[in-house]
Design a protein that fits this description.
single chain; about 300 residues; alpha+beta; Four Helix Bundle (Hemerythrin (Met), subunit A); 4-stranded mixed beta sheet
Length: about 300
Amino acid sequence: MTGYAQARSQAPGGAAEGWALRASVKSVNHRFLDLKLQLPEGFDVYETRVRRVIRERIVRGHVHLIVNFEAQSAAGVQLNQPLVEAYLQAAEDLRQKTRAATGMDVVGLLRLPGVIRGAGPALPEDEDEREKLWQILDACLQEALTTLDGMRRAEGAHLVENLRQRLATIAEHCGKVRDLAELLRPAFARRLDLRLKELLGGTGIDSGRLAQEAALLAERSDISEELERLQSHLRQFAALLDGAGEVGKKLDFLLQEMQREANTMLSKTPGIESEALAITGLALEIKSEIEKLREQVQNIE
């Protein structure tokens, strides 16, 4: 499921010269859970707990979390003058060696590592204060994940409706296959009769033996069990969609079994009879719908 959300908090009391904390989380479809965290300097002490919070709420998807910890004013920003002078001296030495006629880029200079000090609030050194900051970060993260969950649920409702439509299409194809399979029994008898006449050169054929051979041929080509199992899987699939909890892997397993039954139907209906060709076409359509279902089920937790 895809979605984006963010939540924001600030220093207790809302002091203008305090700090602001913002958690932004984005998720895109993926078969497994893949977490990418972008935390402020010093926040690595919270990484394990942040990962645990996300894993408790999200099971599948590429999840990218960005946490910003910013000062509410620029009063604490200072220039590291010795470092600036060292950068300038290094640039001048390089200019003289290469005889390059380049001017100084002040904005680029300010972006160099360490030039600006105190651009953001410092992580508390006191353990109790760090724990208080974690409580604020946790609340902020939970709020963002709740908003994200709402977006993912809305997308999930639309996805489930699409899945139900495809299930109905497969069920309709199965009904048509069942009707065509019944028409194949006489076709098997006609096919066997023609074949035996060719082999016997016009000699008479016992009708009882012909019926027996046709029955054996029909039994080897019978797909009623495959149809029954396939329709049972369809019912289980629909029941899982109506349920709750983590169903993605169960749905994926059912689709593998459905694909197996469709392949068996294809292998058991050879021949050039119109009914057999029609069954082949429907079985291919069923396989196509199952494959589309598998692609979409990868997004369901």
